[in-house]
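Fold sample X.
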Amino acid sequence: MTHDWNTRTALVHGGTARSQWGEVSEAIFLTQGFVYDTAEAAQARFIEAGPDEFIYARYGNPTVSMFEKRIALLEGAEDAFATASGMAAVSGALTSILKAGDHVVAARALFGSCLYVLSDILTRFGVTVTFVDGTDLDQWQEAIGPQTTAVFFETVANPTLEVVDIEAVAKLAHHHGALVVVDNVFATPVFSRAISQGADVVIYSATKHIDGQGRALGGVILGARDFIRGTVEPYMKHTGGSMSPFTAWIMLKGLETIDLRVRAQTATALAVTEALQGHPKVVRAIYPGHSSHPQYDLTMHQMTKGGTVVALDLGGQEEAFRFLNALKIVLISNNLGDTKSIVTHPATTTHQRLPADQRASLGITPGLVRLSLGIEDTDDLIADVMQALDAI
């Protein structure tokens, strides 16, 4: 029984459905449609498809289904729906829940595209959104009420690495019957316990750690089976945001090694943070898994580890750009969770559309850089970061 397997075993074998050929590596079913033996069989399937019956690739596919089952097994969720990208998962989860007149309470520290969905798109269709400081439980309590349909937050904020207390916010939300929807990318499915801590819906950009090798866009929405199949699936299959079979196959291959990769990246992130303590060129090194982080205790309770990303404040944009341009191993790009170490300057890339005062209120200073650690040799990465700091 798969539920008796430990994590690494489940990540290699969970959800596998072999064809009559008995292939070792999961098959890619590159088809948009499926054949029925009779007209009566087609009619029956459209009324109610069985667990291993498929109608159209936008509705479901054997390869995609394997990925959904495996990631649900890792997350501890009843079910999952795979999407074309991380933002398809965010927008699909929220839009499938909400209607005109509904109220959402969201943490203000979010990825730029998540902010756009909440503040520009949902409000256009009559949804009211209240933003709060995600770390301030008093603000959550004041904002959440009987009128609230859902709350939304990144469990670890991008890029400032603030940590939101899932259990505490979920308790406040559930008291008023609101759904708890979390973007869990920075926590990673390796360290996540979000569902057991009160999250109703967990979202990942599979582009990040799940693929982890810079190959494909993807996303996934996880939750209770009734919610995934009764609310998310009807919305996603009719609006077209489903994952392709080839992408699902890539994600299955990524899941086989995600535990090994993420644990190695996390160990390097902590080592880099420790090496930077007291460095004269670093105004502040931010890492949830280091004792210097203001929410270190919450991080250890919630995740047990700090994740793969470190944020550095180097004082100003000029200093940040000099640092980025001097790096020899670490690549300048706006992705994260890759086997290759990646750095970006959020104020001029991922969060550049935000007004300067909003960036300042979120802690996205001109000197802030986001460093996603890969699986290169730890000593090489520390040496690269140190020589780049010398260039400031």
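Fold sample Y, listed below.
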Amino acid sequence: MYHTGLKEFLRDGKSALAKGPVAMIFAEDLVEVDTTIRHHQLAGFAQVLLFAPDELSLPVDLTDTIHRIRYDMSRENALPDAVNAMIEAAEGLWLYYCYNAEYLFHPFCETRNVSEMLTFHTEERRDAVLTYVVDLYADDLDRYPDAVSLENAWLDKSGYYALGRPDEKGHPKERQLDFFGGLRWRFEEHIPKHRRKIDRISLFRARKGLRLRPDHTFNDEEYNTYSCPWHHNVTTAIVSFRTAKALKSNAGSTFDIHTFKWHNSTEFDWSSQQLLDLGLMEPGQWF
């Protein structure tokens, strides 16, 4: 179903918010939008909302199974503004957001869907899921100049680290860390400092007054924690071509980068087990 804008969707399409979890996909360009949609439909989301420009063309079988919302991602704070409007409209629902050419993985996703994971997470009295954004990149930039190839996708198998997240007085916040690694770390000279983190709270339960900030954290500090005080919780991963695409499309960096591969690159096999083995997500108490 097509909606001319977010306000129109919130007025006429609210039936899509009757049941969660709901996935919101934000198309910054036209790359791999269809595969992003299909991946999240297969993951078990009850509804998929696509925020995209009109020039995007999709197969008929996808246009009939999603809610497509005309949206301009080029304006400042486009994503948090849309997510916050959805939070206001979907109180109590589990929501998820990502960009195009990004793919969510959770522990055991080959046999258990995202709804099952969120049911378990809810039983643990958690309202948010920490997500690591793991950079993917094509192996051959001559063959794939936009750095995107699902069939030849690689990722870094090491080089990830975390630092304490300071509060206003410089003291570390409880159960919060800033995570770094991947292309944003290896090519940090091309990445603004405030965009180098690789953590998001991409899965969360909407409630009144909750707000997503531009740095992918929420105004409720408990939402930003990696676990409860008693034990580790489930975490998830989004494998993402977004940084690789940006580095190769930006005139300030594209000519400096001839390959993203290095001695710690490994081919991505599109399995949750590989991400678990690399420590890029964990099952917590869920087995």
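Sample Y note: The chain has two domains: 1-100, 103-287.
Also: Residues 1-100 form a domain with the Rossmann fold fold (CATH 3.40.50).
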